[in-house]
TrEMBL record:
Residues 212-426 form the Major facilitator superfamily (MFS) profile domain. It is found in: Cell membrane. It is a multi-pass membrane protein. The lineage of its organism: Bacteria, Bacillati, Actinomycetota, Actinomycetes, Kitasatosporales. The chain crosses the membrane at residues 17-39, 45-67, 79-99, 170-192, 213-237, 249-266, 278-295, 301-323, 335-358, 364-384. Residues 398-426 are annotated as: Disordered. Gene3D superfamilies: MFS general substrate transporter like domains. This is MFS transporter.
Length: 426
């Protein structure tokens, strides 16, 4: 298992791209915590801190697919680096001016969010050309999902250490300087400079004109909703089971489960079509969320959350492969960005929805929201499965008859030339 990942990382440029992307995404991964700490240090209320973080998150959700489309049109260096610098300057403005006047603080969040570079989608667009072989791309997507779990654990720790060593203002600046350095490391690499998207058909919907993409987006909105609700429900559970450290046990177990699942999933090549496999993984993910509403004792609950996390990273890794196959020609970075954005928006909605549920029914009701999100994600995949049919058996519009054809919609990994797809995409 370890040997397979080591071989992948020894591939030329692979380790640099992975590490550079993770470092470049630190500002986004730590923004909520860093902004809240800075706002409180400046004398602002939690309400203001939450509002600034919400503006940042909303603008990131808007900016990612738009910047992803720009990357597909003009290449990575011409979009990624300027956007990383502009995003960092937004945070520098907040750190320099503070929270007064308020309009300046909000403007800083708008700039920082809108121009957050789509490094995650960009990396996934690069993997096929860098790794060449489909089975390596499969493993890279799994490793990427695992590395995200590590980043979301290490990032807040880095912010906390920076605050302890210097101040909240310096922490904000350090994280964003690191983000620019990470983005620079990626865009000056040969794979990033040489990468070109396939020629695209001009269409205002871009990646969203693919019915398969819409199914994935719909399903992963609910996966994000489930994950966002678990974070709040864990705090509510801790309030009645021994205090704040209990919530950290649950969330750590969830992360460890995702790490283990992602590592195991990416260590082997799985048979069959990824569309069918994704449906099974989403079903297992939903099955893992449902028992959480039983809210047993701390040891049992920790074990349940660990099991609930096992299929998250595999589902994400498999979804990246399916996106790669269903994104319309020339829209792959935008398509990856849409999936990431929708997942994040779903998590934000889950965080807001679970609050009233906890007020009404306690932690059990909060975890029931997570279970409902998992079931809804599976329902979308099952109800719309005809739009994610594998190669050669897609059905015609309204007729139900099979349509001959090669790859699903955009099987770039099966293309003659890495990173480009054979055939025409209508």
């Amino acid at each position: 298992m370890a040997a397979g990942y080591a071989e992948l990382l020894r591939t030329r440029h692979a380790a640099r791209l992975l590490v550079g992307t993770l470092v470049g995404r630190l500002p986004n991964a730590t923004a909520a915590l860093a902004v809240v700490l800075f706002t409180r240090a400046e004398g602002g209320s939690y309400a203001l801190a939450g509002a600034l973080s919400a503006v940042y998150g909303l603008c990131t959700a808007v900016g990612q697919p738009l910047l992803g489309r720009a990357v597909d049109l003009w290449g990575q260096p011409r979009v990624m680096l300027p956007s990383a610098v502009l995003s960092a300057l937004g945070m520098v403005l907040l750190a320099g001016v503070g929270i007064e006047p308020l309009w300046t603080a909000y403007a800083a969040m708008v700039v920082a969010g809108l121009f957050t570079p789509p490094l995650e989608g960009g990396l996934r667009a690069l993997w096929p050309g860098v790794l060449k072989r489909p089975e390596r791309v499969h493993a890279a997507y799994a490793l990427d999902a695992v590395a995200q779990e590590v980043m979301f654990a290490v990032g807040p720790l880095l912010v906390t250490l920076s605050v302890a060593a210097w101040s909240e203002r310096v922490a904000l600046l350090v994280i964003n300087v690191l983000g620019v350095v990470g983005a620079l490391s990626v865009v000056v690499s040969p794979p990033s400079r040489e990468w070109r998207s396939a020629p695209r058909e001009a269409h205002w919907l871009g990646a969203l004109r693919s019915s398969g993409m819409l199914v994935l987006i719909g399903s992963f909105f609910f996966v994000g909703l489930a994950l966002g609700s678990i974070a709040v429900a864990a705090v509510a559970y801790a309030d009645t089971h021994g205090g704040g450290m209990v919530s950290s046990y649950l969330l750590s177990a969830l992360g460890v489960g995702a790490l283990v699942g992602g590592v195991v999933y990416g260590a082997r090549e799985w048979p069959g079509e990824p569309e069918r496999r994704l449906r099974v993984l989403i079903g297992l993910l939903a099955l893992g969320y449902l028992p959480l509403s039983l809210v047993p004792g701390v040891v049992g609950m920790t074990a349940l959350t660990g099991l609930a996390g096992v299929f998250l990273a595999p589902a994400l890794a498999c979804a990246f492969i399916v996106v790669d196959r269903h994104a319309p020609r020339g829209t792959v970075t935008e398509a990856f960005s849409w999936l990431v954005t929708t997942f994040g928006v779903g998590a934000a909605v889950g965080t807001s929805v679970v609050g009233p549920a906890v007020e009404l029914g306690g932690a059990a009701a909060g975890f029931a929201v997570a279970g409902g999100g998992g079931v809804a994600a599976l329902a979308v995949m099952v109800a719309a499965r005809r739009f994610l049919l594998p190669s050669g058996i897609r059905t015609g519009e309204g007729s139900g008859a099979p349509v001959a054809g090669g790859p699903a919609e955009n099987d770039r990994n099966g293309a003659v030339e890495p990173g480009f797809r054979a055939g025409h995409q209508a």
